[in-house]
């Protein structure tokens, strides 16, 4: 009896790191799922002419709309107050999740000449859209199939990360 209990205990201990790793994997899959949904929603919104693809014109139009929305005093530049308003909005949308370092500085990076103001051109140039990473045939537009393929790639990468043994 005692031996069986000890064996069971040993098994539990041995399995513990695996369980922790599976939980981390679940959280990752969850995030990925949410990200895929978000990308799909954004895609549908960007595809104004509903031809099943998002092209450069549609992306530029989206960037122009975002700029117009951010430039609240309509002087043609996003100044520090307006940039702060964007950051606040982003922080609100993010909730209590920590900011991604690379995303936090997008506005700062956009201000190429560092005069504290982002012009329309600077803003457009900084908008290296996440979506273009899905453009696998590099024809300047992203079809829904390319987006699905891209999401599949992210999924595979996450699966691979899950398959790695948990760090000790
Ligand atoms: Ca389209
Ligand atoms: Ca302004
Ligand atoms: Ca394409």
UniProtKB/TrEMBL annotation:
<dbReference type="InterPro" id="IPR002048">
    <property type="entry name" value="EF_hand_dom"/>
</dbReference>
<protein>
    <submittedName>
        <fullName>Ca2+-binding EF-hand superfamily protein</fullName>
    </submittedName>
</protein>
<feature type="signal peptide">
    <location>
        <begin position="1"/>
        <end position="22"/>
    </location>
</feature>
<dbReference type="Pfam" id="PF13202">
    <property type="entry name" value="EF-hand_5"/>
</dbReference>
<keyword id="KW-0732">Signal</keyword>
<dbReference type="GO" id="GO:0005509">
    <property type="term" value="F:calcium ion binding"/>
</dbReference>
<feature type="domain" description="EF-hand">
    <location>
        <begin position="98"/>
        <end position="133"/>
    </location>
</feature>
<dbReference type="Pfam" id="PF13499">
    <property type="entry name" value="EF-hand_7"/>
</dbReference>
<feature type="domain" description="EF-hand">
    <location>
        <begin position="34"/>
        <end position="69"/>
    </location>
</feature>
<feature type="region of interest" description="Disordered">
    <location>
        <begin position="88"/>
        <end position="142"/>
    </location>
</feature>
<feature type="compositionally biased region" description="Basic and acidic residues">
    <location>
        <begin position="88"/>
        <end position="123"/>
    </location>
</feature>
<dbReference type="InterPro" id="IPR011992">
    <property type="entry name" value="EF-hand-dom_pair"/>
</dbReference>
<dbReference type="InterPro" id="IPR018247">
    <property type="entry name" value="EF_Hand_1_Ca_BS"/>
</dbReference>
